[in-house]
Amino acid sequence: MSEFITKRIEDGVLVVTLNRPGKMNAITEPMYAALADQIEAAQGDSEIHVVLLLSEGDTFTAGNDISAFAGWAQAERSEIPASVHRFLTALATARKPLVAGVQGQAIGIGVTLLLHCDFVVVAHDARLVAPFVNLALVPEAASTLLMVARIGHARAFALFAMGKPMDGDTAVSWGIANLAVEKGKVREEALSAAKLLASGPLGAMTATKQLMRDQESILAQITAESQQFARQLGSPEAREVFQAFLAKRPPKDLE
């Protein structure tokens, strides 16, 4: 298990916490593997009824580690890393409820993973950003399907293509999150919601979740997005964007 992922079980809730606050909880390949391990294992553990995703520090997650992105782009990888795909698949196929508590910034995967959660608590002043197109990439985690279903095409396209931040109150009003609270209460409220879900009849809970999600379509969209994501990641425009980011300069225009 990655040193940057911690876990504990409390009243039927598996609390999985991103613990890399010095790097804004940016997610590396080992972290993706550890997250997938925990979500997968929880499905067969009778002690666990709900999985709660939290983070330490002032940022939920800065998304993928940019240095890793740059390395993948330079290597011209033909597919996304296996650990990333495992995590996305674990989210999509989780039978037990997923809950998240979001404070500070949630960038990229920090936003799209919320679409797989059954209850989301955000801080009023949280900043949700999905800057995929600005990074010369495409969205992932079946978000091109789930985000459109959740908030409509016009809002979803603007969110992905323009990369403008959304605050927590907007996330609630648009249906991406359930509850907005003061940032100091995010973890408490998210844990409370998770415990309430964990106290309910598990069979009925998992059956209801299954009926509400078209898992086959979600998995197919994850595959289609991942293939395009890998193609984009190896493109000249993506390599230039990441080189410019690491060099702290504007990217050059590409014809």
UniProtKB/TrEMBL annotation:
Quote one Gene Ontology molecular function term: delta(3)-delta(2)-enoyl-CoA isomerase activity
**Name of the protein:** Enoyl-CoA hydratase
Q: What is its EC number?
A: 4.2.1.17
Please provide the record's keywords in A-Z order: Isomerase, Lyase, Peroxisome
- Which Pfam families does the UniProt entry name for this protein? ECH_1 (PF00378)
Instruction: State its location(s).
Output: Peroxisome
Q: Which domain of life is it from?
A: Bacteria
> Top-level EC class, please?
lyase
Is Lyase one of the keywords UniProt gives this record? yes
